[in-house]
Amino acid sequence: MAHGREVLPAIIGGTLGLFGSLVIMIVHIAYPSIRNFFRKLIFILSIYDLLLSIGFLINGPSNHILCRIQTVWGSVLMTATPSWTATISFITYLKIVKSVSDSKVDYIQRWLHFFTIFISLVICIIWIIFSRPEVKEAYWCFEKEANLLFGIYCIWWFFLLVILIFYILCLIKIRQAYKAIMKIASQMEKLRKKEKLKIQLRMTLIPIVYILTSIPSSIKRARDYFQPNASDLKILDVLQALFLPSQGIFDCFIFVFFVRIVRKKIIDSLFKCCRKNQDRSLVIPLVRESYFSDEFDTEND
């Protein structure tokens, strides 16, 4: 999804995002014991991140069929990812601030998931209908109408605003809960509530990761619209191509590598795998030795 100087950063960012998303998905599937409601949301987000990263790895000449695939692919995923991140922020808000029951939250997230897919497909259709065939060397393969671009920018910024608002509300509630925990006399109860608070705090990191990885792209989008004749900033193009598809790797660190229980399970699995391979390598020489010794004994008899 890049041209010229953006190609290498896009490949690096796309590869990192692809790797991180795959790790999250594999861990979720391989270890049923660590699954919970929040990890289910992360699993769905990792699917969107995976597809977005693949979109950044798709590249071809401007008049090539890959460019058309890239445009459609990108228009869907560039809407679905912020939409689902906003959904996670809203659901986290319902759980932390409003203390909504799991059944109600699950029902809400299903409808929001449907909304995410629906609005992404609508944006994709609009993108295809109103895109013009003129080609330019830029982030997207095809030049778009200014009004259409502004509408898509507004959707993008709307989701970023929603994510930021829910993050601030959740953070305020967590801070209040932490102050209340510190007043508890029982150490066991204090540790239990602190662990729960740690999980909630980790969930609030998802919107922050998305906002941080979207800063270069947001600045570039605003600059392209309000200053269409301004010269391109090389560093902004590179940062956009590098960070936008790499949300998967940041989420992977937060929810896999920095979580002690998950990290321990992965290490244990790797040790078991190594032991099995070592045992197999020892079995073959033992079998051969047993075979030749039996043959030798037979000859002596």
Automatic annotation (TrEMBL):
<feature type="transmembrane region" description="Helical">
    <location>
        <begin position="6"/>
        <end position="29"/>
    </location>
</feature>
<keyword id="KW-1133">Transmembrane helix</keyword>
<feature type="transmembrane region" description="Helical">
    <location>
        <begin position="41"/>
        <end position="60"/>
    </location>
</feature>
<feature type="domain" description="G-protein coupled receptors family 2 profile 2">
    <location>
        <begin position="6"/>
        <end position="259"/>
    </location>
</feature>
<keyword id="KW-0472">Membrane</keyword>
<protein>
    <submittedName>
        <fullName>G protein-coupled receptor</fullName>
    </submittedName>
</protein>
<feature type="transmembrane region" description="Helical">
    <location>
        <begin position="150"/>
        <end position="172"/>
    </location>
</feature>
<dbReference type="GO" id="GO:0005886">
    <property type="term" value="C:plasma membrane"/>
</dbReference>
<feature type="transmembrane region" description="Helical">
    <location>
        <begin position="72"/>
        <end position="91"/>
    </location>
</feature>
<dbReference type="InterPro" id="IPR017981">
    <property type="entry name" value="GPCR_2-like_7TM"/>
</dbReference>
<dbReference type="InterPro" id="IPR022343">
    <property type="entry name" value="GCR1-cAMP_receptor"/>
</dbReference>
<feature type="transmembrane region" description="Helical">
    <location>
        <begin position="199"/>
        <end position="219"/>
    </location>
</feature>
<feature type="transmembrane region" description="Helical">
    <location>
        <begin position="111"/>
        <end position="130"/>
    </location>
</feature>
<keyword id="KW-0675">Receptor</keyword>
<keyword id="KW-0812">Transmembrane</keyword>
<dbReference type="InterPro" id="IPR022340">
    <property type="entry name" value="GPCR_GCR1_put"/>
</dbReference>
<keyword id="KW-0807">Transducer</keyword>
<feature type="transmembrane region" description="Helical">
    <location>
        <begin position="239"/>
        <end position="262"/>
    </location>
</feature>
<dbReference type="GO" id="GO:0007189">
    <property type="term" value="P:adenylate cyclase-activating G protein-coupled receptor signaling pathway"/>
</dbReference>
<dbReference type="GO" id="GO:0007166">
    <property type="term" value="P:cell surface receptor signaling pathway"/>
</dbReference>
<keyword id="KW-0297">G-protein coupled receptor</keyword>
<dbReference type="GO" id="GO:0004930">
    <property type="term" value="F:G protein-coupled receptor activity"/>
</dbReference>
